[in-house]
Design brief:
The chain is an alpha/beta fold and 292 residues long. The protein is built from nine helices and ten strands. The strands form three sheets. A six-stranded mixed β-sheet has the order 4-3-5-10-6-9.
């Protein structure tokens, strides 16, 4: 059965005007004149047989009918935009990236200017997430995760994770390897990091106290401030180690996990360019030091 809908241009004009609250704002967004938007809205009102706006021209507000119609149109246009983006194959426009929050803050963002310089037509829109990737459910183009296979979609290997204890110089003892009695820091997102490192290294540290933080970057800030010792991956603390803000008395060892960039199985130009850049940045990234 054929769908009986008002003209798409009229629906777009009303949605933009209702969402932005101004006809002039809608005109700017749609790259048309104010009178064109107003004309399309009046046409939509005539087709529907209801008023969608009320009040003076300089202070329009949605009617009850307008408020009922707007949310569905906004959601619908957003879904259309996402669907178009999934099949569009251009080297310009938005690229939606899902990334582990602390990795984005500590490793990706400080390097992202190089990608923007190389590909100025691509706007990276970043969302922080650590949940399992589901390209059928989520609308992003690329996801950066750390873990072990199997991976959804196509996986672009970045580097193997290396991790180890780090602490502020103000906590260091004559022999930096002496950690017994110092507060051990944990995070909800990696509760078993100390146990995993001890199992791999064979080193047991007797904690003076234990503190847990909700977010990984909270824990890293606590370690930098001298509140205790934490287990951290090399990419997240490399700049602090080089600047002397943190010490790594045992160096870094492989954790058994890998950082990867994941993308949909169907290639598309923007995600290919971004993943190629990520791979190149990972290759130039310096390996972690061994034990001090």
């Amino acid at each position: 059965m054929a769908r009986r809908l008002p003209p798409l241009t009229a629906l777009r004009a009303f949605e933009a005007a209702g969402r932005l609250g101004r006809m002039t704002g809608a005109a700017d967004e749609l790259h048309v004149t104010h009178s064109a938007v107003s004309r399309q809205v009046r046409h939509l009102e005539a087709v529907l047989g209801v008023a969608l706006f009320e009040g003076p021209k300089n202070a329009l507000r949605l009617t009850e009918a307008g408020r009922a119609l707007l949310p569905g149109l906004t959601a619908g246009f957003e879904r259309i935009e996402r669907s178009v983006a999934l099949v569009a194959d251009t080297e310009e426009g938005e690229l939606d990236l899902s990334c582990i929050g602390t990795f984005a803050m500590r490793w990706l963002i400080p390097r992202l200017y190089r990608f923007q310089s190389a590909c100025p037509g691509i706007e990276v829109r970043m969302t922080s997430s650590e949940r399992k990737v589901d390209f059928a459910r989520d609308g992003f183009d690329v996801a950066i995760r750390v873990g072990t296979p199997p991976w959804p979609g196509e996986a672009v290997a970045l580097f193997a994770e290396q991790f180890g204890p780090v602490l502020s110089p103000r906590l260091a003892r004559p022999r930096p390897q002496e950690l017994d009695g110092l507060p051990l820091l944990h995070t909800l997102t990696r509760r078993h990091a100390w146990a995993a490192w001890s199992g791999l290294s064979g080193i047991q540290v007797r904690a003076g106290a234990e503190r847990e933080f909700e977010r990984f970057y909270f824990m890293l800030e606590a370690a930098t401030a001298g509140l205790g010792v934490c287990i951290a991956p090399w990419p997240l603390v490399c700049d602090d180690i080089r600047a002397g803000r943190l010490l790594a008395p045992f160096g870094f060892a492989p954790s058994g996990q890998d950082y990867v960039a994941l993308r949909r199985a169907r290639r598309h130009a923007k995600s290919a360019l971004f993943c190629d850049w990520l791979r190149a940045e990972a290759q130039r990234f310096e390996a972690a030091p061994g034990a001090a």
